[in-house]
C-alpha cells in the first residue's frame, strides 16, 4: 500500500466543511459574519478534522439570493472583509493543514452586474451576447423553473432591452450565455485570478445548467459542451497542480457519470472533468432508508453506482446548504420521507424537499443522529459537512425558505449564540430558538464534553482519515446477512480493509458475518470503541448490534503493521 497516494489525490479521503462567512462568526460585531471572524475560528475546524474548507459565495452581491446573485467576480463583499482578509484566511488555513475552495457561480449573474446593465441598454453593447435573449414571446415554461414558488417561467421581458432574457433560476439572475467564447474566456480568467490568490479549487454551482449553451454555435471551436469543462479543469490544473472541481450535478447516475469525463462522447468516461460530484442519488435513498428503517435502498444504490475514473470521487453528505432535495424519489417514496421527517407543510419546500436539519427530523434521538453521521463517514466517498452539523444544530422555520438552515453558528450559550454582540435585529439571520437554540446546543459546551456529538464527529473524522480504504475503495462490497434494517458493507483498498455495520432500526440484532479471507488468527478491531472480534477458522463470526447501533471493524491479519 502506497500511503503517499493519498496525498497526491488528497480529495479522495478529505473531510470537507461548507460554511457561509456571513453566518459563521462576526468579529467586528456589526451583525454580519466576516473573514476575520472565520480566521479566529479556524482552529475549531482543525480540531474537528476538516482538511478542505468550502466557502459559499463571498463576492459582492445584490444579496437577493444569499450571495448567489453576484455583481463582481473579482471582489470580496465589503461586509465580509477584503481580498487581504481572504488571503489571510487561506494562509492561516494552510498552516493548519486545510485547503480552501470557493463557490464558482457561472450559470448566471445578478441583474445588477455591470455586464447585464450594459447588455440591457443596447443591442450594440459588447455584453449583449453575454446573456440569452429572445425578441418573440416565449412559450409556457412553468415546468422548467427551479423555484416554482417564486417564478412561473424562465423568461422575463426587459423594457429597457426591448427583449426577453432567460433565467433558469430567479428573474434577478439572468443566465450567462456560455456559447459565447468571450464568456468562457471570462470564466477562465476569473478562475485563474482566485487560484493565484491561493484557492485550491471550486465547488461548481449548477453544472448542467451552465454547460447547457456551450457549443450551440456551429461556427464555434467547441463542438461538445463537455469540452469546456475539460478545458476548465486542464487550465486550473496547470495553474494549481492539485486543485479540484467539485460539481453540483443532480442527475441520475447514467447522466451524472458523464461529468466525470467522456472525451470522445461514446458514453465511456476517461476522466479530466469534475474531480468530485455530490451523490444526490445516494443521499435521497439514505433518507428513504431511514424513513423505512430498512437499509435496502442504500445497499441497492451503492451496488448501482457506476464505475468512475481512478482520480475521481463521490462527495457524500447528509444535507447541504439548499433544501434537502428529494426530487429523484418517486412521488410515493417522497411522501414516505415527508411523513417521517417533514409532515408539516412548513417543513417542505418546492414540493420536492425539506428545509430542516437532521436532529429535529430524528426527534433529537442521539442514537439515530450518531448512527447517521457514522454512516456518512463510512460510505465510500468524501464526506461533506454543512456548518453546525458537528454540534447538532437545528433549523429556524421562521426564516424564509432555504434560510431556515442558514442560521448563525452557535458558539456559546450567550447572546446570539456567541456569533455576534450586535442587537438581534441587526444579525444576518435569526438565531435558532427552543430546544436546539444556543442554550442547549453550542460549541463551547460540547468541546469540553468527551461524550458530546462534537467529540463523536471528531472521532469519526480522525478514523476516516486513518482508513484510506473508505475513500479509495472502487466499490463497496455488500455483505450478506439476514436483517433488513442492517447495512453491512466492506471497503477494501490494497492491504487495508474495514467492515462497517449500521442498524437503521430500533431493535438490537445479532449480525452473522462470513469473511472468507480471514481465520482464527485474525482480529476485527472496533475503531470507534474499545472492542474486538475474532472469526473462527472458516472466517465466520457474530457481531451484536444495538438498536441504531454501528461498528467500524478493521480487519487485522497477523502480519499487519497498521496502527490501530
Automatic annotation (TrEMBL):
Keyword check for Hydrolase: yes
Swiss-Prot/TrEMBL catalytic activity: Endohydrolysis of (1->4)-alpha-D-glucosidic linkages in polysaccharides containing three or more (1->4)-alpha-linked D-glucose units
Record family assignment: Belongs to the glycosyl hydrolase 13 family.
GO MF, one annotated term: cation binding
EC nos: 3.2.1.1
Top-level taxon: Bacteria
Gene3D superfamilies documented for this protein: Glycosidases, Golgi alpha-mannosidase II, Oligo-1,6-glucosidase, Domain 2
Enzyme superclass (EC): hydrolase
Protein name: Alpha-amylase
Pfam families to which the protein is assigned, alphabetical: Alpha-amylase, SupH-like_C
Residue stretches making up the Glycosyl hydrolase family 13 catalytic domain: 22-426
Species lineage: Bacteria, Bacillati, Actinomycetota, Actinomycetes, Micrococcales
Entry keywords, A to Z: Carbohydrate metabolism, Glycosidase, Hydrolase
Species this chain originates from: Cellulomonas oligotrophica
GO biological process, one term: carbohydrate metabolic process
InterPro entries in the cross-refs: Alpha_amylase (IPR006046), GH (IPR017853), GH13_cat_dom (IPR006047), Glyco_hydro_b (IPR013780), O16G_dom_2 (IPR045857), SupH-like_C (IPR054049)
Keyword match Hydrolase: yes
Amino acid at each position: 500500500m502506497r500511503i503517499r497516494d493519498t496525498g497526491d489525490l488528497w480529495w479522495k479521503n478529505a473531510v470537507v466543511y461548507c460554511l457561509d462567512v456571513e453566518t459563521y462568526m462576526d468579529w467586528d460585531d456589526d451583525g454580519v459574519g466576516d473573514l476575520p471572524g472565520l480566521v479566529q475560528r479556524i482552529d475549531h475546524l482543525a480540531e474537528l478534522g476538516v482538511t478542505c474548507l468550502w466557502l459559499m459565495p463571498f463576492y459582492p452581491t445584490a444579496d437577493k439570493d444569499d450571495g448567489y446573485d453576484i455583481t463582481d467576480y473579482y471582489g470580496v463583499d465589503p461586509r465580509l472583509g477584503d481580498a487581504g482578509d481572504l488571503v489571510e484566511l487561506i494562509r492561516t488555513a494552510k498552516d493548519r493543514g486545510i485547503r480552501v475552495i470557493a463557490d464558482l457561480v457561472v450559470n448566471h449573474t445578478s441583474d445588477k452586474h455591470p455586464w447585464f446593465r450594459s447588455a440591457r441598454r443596447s443591442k450594440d453593447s459588447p455584453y449583449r451576447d453575454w446573456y440569452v435573449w429572445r425578441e418573440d414571446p416565449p412559450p409556457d415554461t412553468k415546468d422548467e423553473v427551479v423555484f416554482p414558488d417564486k417564478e412561473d417561467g424562465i423568461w422575463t421581458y426587459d423594457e429597457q432591452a426591448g427583449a426577453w432574457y432567460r433565467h433558469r433560476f430567479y428573474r434577478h439572475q439572468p443566465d450567462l450565455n456560455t456559447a459565447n467564447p468571450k464568456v468562457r474566456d471570462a470564466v477562465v480568467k476569473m478562475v485563474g485570478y482566485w487560484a493565484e490568490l491561493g484557492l485550491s479549487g471550486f465547488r461548481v454551482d449548477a453544472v448542467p445548467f451552465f454547460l447547457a449553451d456551450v457549443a450551440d454555435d456551429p461556427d464555434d471551436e467547441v463542438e461538445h459542451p463537455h469540452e469546456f469543462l475539460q478545458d476548465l479543469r486542464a487550465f486550473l490544473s496547470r495553474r494549481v497542480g492539485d486543485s479540484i472541481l467539485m460539481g453540483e450535478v443532480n442527475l441520475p447516475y447514467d447522466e451524472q457519470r458523464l461529468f466525470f469525463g467522456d472525451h470522445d462522447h461514446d458514453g465511456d468516461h476517461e476522466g479530466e472533468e469534475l474531480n468530485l460530484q455530490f451523490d444526490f442519488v445516494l443521499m435521497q435513498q439514505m433518507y428513504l432508508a431511514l424513513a423505512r428503517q430498512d437499509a435496502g435502498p442504500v445497499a441497492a444504490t451503492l451496488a448501482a453506482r457506476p464505475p468512475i475514473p481512478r482520480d475521481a470521487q463521490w462527495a457524500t453528505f447528509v444535507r447541504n446548504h439548499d433544501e434537502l432535495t428529494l426530487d429523484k424519489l418517486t412521488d410515493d417514496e417522497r411522501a414516505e420521507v415527508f411523513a417521517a421527517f417533514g409532515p408539516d407543510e412548513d417543513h417542505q419546500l418546492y414540493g420536492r424537499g425539506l428545509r430542516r436539519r437532521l436532529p429535529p427530523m430524528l426527534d433529537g434521538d442521539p442514537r439515530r443522529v450518531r448512527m447517521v453521521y457514522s454512516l456518512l463517514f463510512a460510505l465510500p466517498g468524501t464526506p461533506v459537512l454543512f456548518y453546525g452539523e458537528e454540534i447538532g444544530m437545528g433549523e429556524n422555520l421562521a426564516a424564509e425558505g432555504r434560510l431556515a438552515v442558514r442560521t448563525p453558528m452557535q458558539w456559546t450559550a450567550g447572546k446570539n449564540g456567541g456569533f455576534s454582540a450586535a442587537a438581534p435585529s441587526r444579525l444576518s439571520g435569526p438565531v435558532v430558538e427552543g430546544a436546539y437554540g444556543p442554550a442547549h446546543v453550542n460549541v463551547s459546551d460540547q468541546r469540553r464534553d468527551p461524550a458530546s456529538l462534537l467529540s463523536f464527529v471528531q472521532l469519526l473524522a480522525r478514523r476516516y482519515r486513518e482508513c484510506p480504504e473508505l475513500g479509495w475503495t472502487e466499490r463497496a462490497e455488500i455483505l450478506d446477512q439476514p436483517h433488513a434494517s442492517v447495512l453491512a458493507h466492506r471497503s477494501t483498498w490494497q492491504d487495508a480493509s474495514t467492515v462497517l455495520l449500521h442498524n437503521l432500526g430500533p431493535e438490537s440484532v445479532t449480525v452473522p458475518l462470513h469473511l472468507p479471507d480471514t481465520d482464527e488468527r485474525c482480529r476485527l478491531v472496533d475503531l470507534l470503541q474499545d472492542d474486538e472480534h475474532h472469526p473462527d477458522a472458516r472466517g465466520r463470526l457474530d457481531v451484536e448490534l444495538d438498536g441504531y447501533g454501528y461498528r467500524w471493524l478493521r480487519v487485522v491479519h497477523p502480519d499487519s503493521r497498521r496502527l490501530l
